[in-house]
Every structure is written in C-alpha cells, then in structure tokens.
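sorry for the late reply, my laptop died twice this morning and i had to redo everyting from scratch. anyway the thing you sent over, i finally got around to it. pasting the sequence first so we're on the same page, its 144 residues, then the predicted structure underneath. double check i copied it right bc i was rushing
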Amino acid sequence: MPEPGAAEPAGRDPDARQPRNEPGRLARWQASLAYALTGADLELPEPGRPDPPALIAGLAAQGWTPARLRAHAEACVRDGQSWPHLIPPDLRAGCGAAQLAAVLGSARALLGLVTLETRPPSARTTFTADELRLLREVPPHHGS
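ok and here's the structure:
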C-alpha cells in the first residue's frame, strides 16, 4: 500500500478497485447478466456488485419469470442461436470475464437453467474391423 500522498505507480489506475465503464459510473453487472439471459438491455437496479438473487427478482418484476426464461432459452437453442446471449462489450465494460462467467453460472443454477435438456447415454456401437484391430494392438511393454 503506498503511503498517503505518494503518487500511484505508472500505469496503475487509482480507481481500479471500482470497475467503471464510464467516468463516475459503476460497471453494469445486473444489466450484463440480464442481457446474457434475455438478449435485451434492461434497466435494473445496480448494487455495484453482482447479485444473482436480486437479478432474478428484478427480471421477474419486468416479466422475465423463470418459466419465460426457460422458454426463451429453449427457443434460442431450437432456432440455432446461442444462449446465453453474448454480452456487447460496451455493456459488460468493467465486469471481469471470469467473475461474470461464474455469476452467470450461479444465476442459471438458481433458475434451474444449467442444462436445457437431459439426454440418455449414447447407445453402444459395434466396432468396425479396423477399430477392433487397433484395440488389440498394444505397445511392446504393455502387460509385461
């Protein structure tokens, strides 16, 4: 920690602890997460840090219930679109990528949207003659 009154080291932003996307404005965590889930730039209260339960409450207040979010996600996947939606760079400015991914995962877990479909294990396939030959081949030291 530098002494009071000492200059900050070159290249270091004294406000680095407060991610901002505009001068005097905190990062838009809730709006970024909402965009990832809905594809819409929604105005939500910004507590200055990610808050998945508050995000879910804010989305529900704007009509984005968990059931509607699931239907939206399934429709996106069915139509070949990506979901969660890619967040525009200007919207996620100031939000750390790893933290954003972790919080989005938490929000999806709270919503029950970690996986959109459950598939049974794939059926066993019959090996071709070449595959059987490769399975029988072992290195010279194998089994000795």
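The beta strands are 20-22, 25-26.
thats about all i looked at so far, will dig more tmrw
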